[in-house]
Write a structure and sequence with these properties.
alpha+beta; OB fold (Dihydrolipoamide Acetyltransferase, E2P); Chloramphenicol Acetyltransferase; Dihydrolipoamide Transferase; 3 domains; 25% helix
Length: 407
C-alpha cells in the first residue's frame, strides 16, 4: 500500500510553501513521524514528518520548487500493518492539553566540501542575495551545517561597503534617501494587513480597567512563580484568560466572515502577536480557554520564545481564531490594531500606568489603570456585541486581587 505525502496547511492565509531540502531520497527507509522534508513558508520554516513507516519510492517535486497546499510531494510504500497517522482528538482537560513529547529534531547534515553556496541557502535567502547583489559563494554561513541565513547576506552586503583597512574614508556625503529591499516576511505582512484593512470594515473600541488588584497579585506572586515555573509572570496571561473565557460567552468574536455566511469557531485558539527579528509573527495558544493563568503563562512564554528563536513548529501557527497584541510592552497607552486576516477581532493590552482616579465615594486615589483596545470586523459584529465582550473582559480583570488563584 502506498501513501502520498502532501503539502500541509500552515494557516488560513498561507496557500503555498517552498521545498527547501529533501531529507530522504528514493529507496531510503523512513519511520513514522521521522522528518522527511524541510519546507519554508511566509509563516514558518519546518520539517514535515512522514505519516507512515515505509520506503520512499518517489520524490514528486524538486528542491526550490514552490508548491500549493495539498499538492503531492512524495510517494511512500508502507510497511505492512502500518496506517497513516491521524490527528489526535482535542484533549478535554488542561493537563491533557499539554503538548506530547515529540521525536527529537533531526540534525541537519553538514555542508559537503565543494557544495555550491546556493545549495546551502533557502530560496528566500537566495532571493535576498539577488536583490542586494551578493554572490553567495563569497558568504560564510552561520547556520547549522554552514547554511547561509538572511542575516549573513545582510552583514556581507553591509560590510562590503566599508573601506579597506588603512584607507581613510571619504568625507561625509549626506544621502537624501535609502532603499531597503523587502524581506519575504515583510512583504507577506504588508499583503495580509492591506487585505484585512481593505476587506474588513474595521471598527474600534477602547475601555479602561482599574487593575490595582491585579498589580498587587502579580507583585505578591511573581518571585515564587518564577522560581516554581522558570518563567516570568506577566500581565498578558491574565488578559488572555479573561478574553478566552468571554469568547465562550460571546462566540461572535470567535468567528470569521465568509461570503453569505458567518462561521463560528467552536474551539478557542488565541494568537499572540510577537515582534521577532524577522518581523511580526503570531504563534497560537490552542484551546486557551482550557488553561489556567499559570498554564497560559507557560504556554505564552513557550510560543513567544520559540517565535523569537526561529523554532516554531507547523502546528504553532495553525488555527488561530482570535488575536492578542501586547502593545503596552513598549509603552503604548492606546492603539488601533489591524485584525488578523480571517478573524473577527483583535484585542490590544496597553501599558499599565498609575493615575489619580475619582472613586465611587468621590474620593481621589492613585490607581493602576490600563486601556484595552478592541478592533473588530463590523460585518460580523455590531458595537453592542463588541462592547459587551470588552466590558466583560474589563470586569474580569478588575476582579483580581492579592489572594486570587493562578491555577
Amino acid at each position: 500500500m502506498t501513501t502520498t505525502l502532501t503539502m500541509p496547511e500552515v494557516g488560513e492565509t498561507v496557500t503555498e510553501g517552498t521545498i527547501e531540502r529533501w531529507l530522504k531520497k528514493p529507496g531510503d527507509h523512513v519511520d513514522k513521524y521521522e522528518p522527511i522534508v524541510e519546507i519554508n513558508t511566509d509563516k514558518v520554516d519546518v520539517e514535515i514528518p512522514s505519516p507512515v513507516t515505509g520506503t520512499v519510492t518517489e520524490l514528486l517535486v524538486e528542491e526550490g520548487a514552490v508548491v500549493e497546499v495539498g499538492a503531492p510531494l512524495a510517494i511512500i510504500e508502507e510497511v505492512a500493518g502500518e496506517t497513516p497517522a491521524e490527528t489526535p482528538s482535542p484533549a478535554p482537560k488542561e493537563e491533557a492539553a499539554k503538548p506530547k513529547a515529540e521525536a527529537p529534531p533531526r540534525e541537519r547534515a553538514p555542508a559537503k566540501r565543494g557544495e555550491p553556496a546556493s545549495r546551502r541557502a533557502t530560496p528566500r535567502v537566495r532571493k535576498l542575495a539577488e536583490e542586494l547583489g551578493v554572490e553567495l559563494a563569497q558568504v560564510q554561513g552561520s547556520g547549522p551545517g554552514g547554511r547561509i541565513k538572511e542575516d549573513d547576506v545582510r552583514a556581507f552586503a553591509g560590510g562590503r561597503e566599508k573601506p579597506p583597512a588603512g584607507v581613510a574614508p571619504a568625507g561625509p556625503v549626506e544621502q537624501e534617501e535609502e532603499t531597503l529591499p523587502l524581506t519575504a516576511i515583510r512583504r507577506t505582512i504588508a499583503r495580509r494587513m492591506a487585505a484585512s484593512k481593505f476587506s474588513a470594515p474595521h471598527a474600534w473600541l477602547v475601555m479602561e480597567a482599574d487593575v490595582t488588584g491585579l498589580v498587587r497579585l502579580r507583585e505578591a506572586q511573581r518571585e515564587a512563580f518564577r522560581e516554581r515555573e522558570g518563567v516570568d509572570l506577566t500581565y498578558l496571561p491574565f488578559v488572555v484568560a479573561a478574553a478566552a473565557h468571554e469568547l465562550r460567552e460571546n462566540p461572535a468574536l470567535n468567528a470569521s466572515w465568509a461570503e453569505e455566511k458567518i462561521v463560528l469557531k467552536k474551539r478557542i485558539h488565541i494568537g499572540i502577536a510577537v515582534a521577532a527579528d524577522q518581523g511580526l509573527l503570531v504563534p497560537v495558544v490552542h484551546d486557551a480557554d482550557r488553561l489556567s493563568v499559570a498554564g497560559l503563562a507557560r504556554a505564552v512564554h513557550d510560543v513567544s520564545q520559540r517565535a523569537r528563536d526561529g523554532k516554531l513548529r507547523l502546528q504553532d501557527v495553525q488555527g488561530g481564531t482570535f488575536t492578542m497584541d501586547n502593545t503596552g510592552s513598549f509603552g503604548s497607552v492606546i492603539s488601533m490594531p489591524i485584525i488578523n486576516l480571517g478573524q473577527a477581532a483583535i484585542l490590544a493590552l496597553e501599558a499599565i500606568t498609575k493615575r489619580p482616579v475619582v472613586l465611587e465615594n468621590d474620593a481621589i486615589a492613585i490607581r493602576s489603570m490600563v486601556n484595552l483596545c478592541l478592533s473588530f470586523d463590523h460585518r460580523i459584529l455590531d458595537g453592542a456585541q463588541a462592547g459587551e465582550f470588552l466590558r466583560s473582559v474589563v470586569q474580569r480583570l478588575e476582579g483580581y486581587g492579592p489572594d486570587s488563584a493562578l491555577e
